[in-house]
Design goal:
Layout (H helix, E strand, L loop, with lengths): L1 E10 L6 E5 L17 E5 L12 E11 L2 E13 L19 H5 L5 E2 L5 E5 L3 H4 L2 E5 L4 E2 L1 H4 L5 H13 E4 L29 E4 L3 E6 L2 E5 L9 H4 L2 E3 L14 E11 L12 E3 L5 E4 L15 H18 L3 E8 L10 H14 L4 E3 L15 E8 L3 E9 L10 E10 L8 E7 L21 H22 L4 E6 L7 H8 L3 E2 L9 E3 L2 E3 L2 E5 L1 H4 L2 E6 L37 E5 L16
Parallel strand pairs: 3-5, 9-27, 10-13, 15-18, 23-24
Antiparallel strand pairs: 1-2, 1-4, 2-3, 4-5, 6-12, 7-8, 7-11, 8-10, 11-14, 12-13, 15-30, 16-17, 18-20, 19-20, 21-22, 22-23, 24-28, 25-28, 26-27, 29-30
GO molecular function: catalytic activity
Organism: Subtercola lobariae
InterPro entries: Endo/exonu/phosph_ase_sf, Endo/exonuclease/phosphatase, ExeM-like
Length: 599
């Protein structure tokens, strides 16, 4: 076929090897419901053809086809020629809201658009590899369906439909894989300033609506890289970072934090580890932790561990908690060391950064599971000794239980220092079975809640029974079940805990602690018993990790010519966000000792 039009976008670099052609005098105030056919098409010219420029008026001869869902003309040799526009008006960007259906989007495919209405960043997992950011039409990120309702429920179905209606990618006008060795010296676009899930997106330039790689995309009119994004980027993002959690009140603050495989024992300390490497081939993180010859996770070298540790410490100190349940920290007993070795390393680093000795860890109790029966990661408690103190030993669930493929719950009772001896509270730290793994059978097969939902649900019931027994024996009805439950808000394990009378405190924040595949939800929870809920002054999910680009994590250091790591700040210190809960407990001032000694 032969057609004529104006060039609205051109991609001589980056791998697209073509341009967009749009009919003269089209676009503008378009109504997708009555605009049934697109006025534009992608023209593939190959890498060796003479490039065209945006604004050129050209005649194209070639063959029309569908390439991976994208309608295009493959131009014949010599099939692109400049023509005289003879006073024809150039097309205008179509001023349209993002269409909610594929049929309406098809009517705009390839056309220049000026997107109307609000857009929000909803996913960053592909930003560092492909230079693309997932957006959601509207003012909020996409929600994980099982955060809204159980599988098969009306709320679940409505959320799936809403996500399909709102999702669209912001692309970089290129097919570059920045993880490929040949491309790591090319700066990744869009990440020079903080870009976070939940950030508002403002379009400052027209873009092209196209479809490729099985998704609808907004393409800039020219390739965007980290070198030219100041001029070429079609968007700006709001900066939603906060230096501290919200003010939640309380005299004592309780937190939970998954610390991303915090292993002071690094891969280089073992003989059988293999590694993920940076662009220079240097080891960064361990990639065969399940190999008995390796047996560790996390950093490959001491230098990378120090980067990870620095960010974790910055996050803990800025969190402002007095008691913190930690998840995903090295279980040093599995490596032939004192079980609390890694906890001690972290506490020493916190105290050094804090300039004191206030922080301590809760030692393991006398009765612990055998090292052979435990996981390589564990939970644990750290606390500020000037504010609270532990009462007695911690208690770990022992004996046969559903936690054979997870981490046994670990409980500790606390009270304020110098406070009323009855002002106690009981905290049970948890890290349930993950949603991944091979060999799932029966009710552990993924049916919409991730693999091993059956085991997680059994763990939830066992946890409730464990906590009830401790509450009775310790005469403490203020119980908090806390940690990484690997279950979203409306999944069976969370429902099981709530059904036992506990309140999911994080639900009231309107925030999520985790982001996966462009959808947000909370895997991390603080559940309060009825009595515990009466002393809660507020809750916050401090969004410092799940909403940040993974490129800012220590494990991505030197993956690209642009270094996105800041080891001194808390942002992307982990992939989970910490939670913080304020508690109303009586604090007394320390007694004043008489001059000249003590009694």
């Amino acid at each position: 076929m032969t057609t004529r039009g104006f060039v609205t976008a051109a991609y001589p670099t980056g791998g697209f090897n073509g341009f967009y052609l749009q009919t003269a005098a089209t676009g503008g105030a378009v109504d997708p419901s009555t605009h049934h056919a697109s006025d534009a098409v992608f023209v593939f010219i190959g890498a060796s053809a003479a490039p065209v420029t945006v604004g050129d008026y050209v005649e194209v001869t070639g063959k029309v086809s569908e390439y991976a869902g994208l309608t295009e003309i493959s131009a014949a040799v010599g099939g692109v020629n400049h023509a005289d526009p003879a006073g024809l008006a150039a097309p205008l960007p179509a001023t349209v809201a993002y269409p909610a259906t594929d049929a309406l989007r098809e009517s705009l495919e390839g056309m220049l658009v000026a997107p109307q209405g609000a857009f929000t960043v909803t996913g960053l997992s592909s930003a560092a590899q492909y230079g693309q950011i997932e957006l959601a039409a509207g003012t909020t990120p996409l929600v994980a369906p099982t955060s809204a309702g159980g599988v098969g429920s009306t709320a679940y179905a409505a959320t799936v439909a809403a996500n399909l209606a709102k999702a669209v990618w912001l692309d970089d006008g290129a097919s570059t894989n920045f993880s490929a060795a040949a491309n790591t010296s090319k700066p990744v676009p869009y990440l020079s300033a903080p870009v976070r899930v939940g950030a508002a997106v403002t379009f400052t330039k027209p873009v092209v609506l196209d479809y490729r790689n099985n998704a609808w995309r907004f393409q800039p009119t020219a390739e965007v890289t980290g070198s030219n994004e100041t001029l070429a980027s079609p968007v700006v993002f709001s900066n939603t970072r906060t230096a501290h959690p919200a003010d939640i009140g309380g005299t004592v603050k309780l937190g939970t934090f998954n610390v991303l495989n915090f292993f002071p024992t690094t891969g280089e300390d073992r003989t059988g580890c293999t590694f993920y490497a940076d662009r220079a081939g240097n080891p960064v993180t361990v990639n065969n932790s399940d190999d008995p010859g390796c047996g560790v996770r996390g950093a490959a070298t001491e230098a990378h561990f120090e980067q990870q540790e620095s960010k974790i410490v910055a996050a803990i100190l800025a969190l402002g908690a007095n008691v913190i349940s930690l998840e995903e920290i090295e279980n040093s007993a599995k490596l032939g060391m004192n079980r609390d070795h890694a906890l001690g390393i972290l506490v020493d680093a916190i105290n050094k950064a804090d300039g004191g000795t206030d922080w301590k860890y809760v030692p393991s109790p006398a009765l612990v599971p055998s090292a052979a029966d435990e996981d390589v990661i564990r939970t644990g408690f750290i606390y500020r000794s000037s504010i609270v103190e532990p009462i007695g030993e911690s208690v770990i669930l022992l004996g046969p239980s559903p936690f054979d493929d997870a981490r046994e719950p670990d409980a500790q009772q606390f009270r304020p220092v110098y406070g009323d001896p009855d002002e106690t509270f009981l905290v049970v730290s948890n890290h349930f079975k993950s949603k991944t793994g091979t060999g799932a059978t029966g009710d552990n097969v993924d049916a919409g809640e991730g693999a091993y939902n059956g085991d997680r649900t059994r763990e939830a019931h066992a946890l409730v029974d464990f906590a009830a027994g401790l509450s009775s024996s310790m005469h403490d009805d203020k119980v908090f079940l806390i940690g990484d439950f690997n279950a979203l808000e409306q999944e069976d394990p969370v429902i099981a805990v709530r059904s036992a009378g506990y309140t999911d405190l994080g639900a009231a924040t309107g925030k999520a602690s985790y982001s996966f595949d462009g959808e947000s939800g909370s895997l991390d929870h603080v559940f309060a018993s009825p009595a515990a809920a009466t002393i809660v002054t507020g809750t916050d999910i401090w969004n410092i990790n799940s909403v940040e680009a993974p490129a800012r994590q220590y494990s991505y250091v030197n993956a690209n010519v642009t270094n996105f790591l800041n080891p001194k700040d808390p942002y992307r210190s982990s992939d989970h966000d910490p939670l913080l809960v304020g508690l109303r407990l009586a604090l007394n001032t320390p007694p004043t000792l008489p001059t000249g000694g003590t009694k």
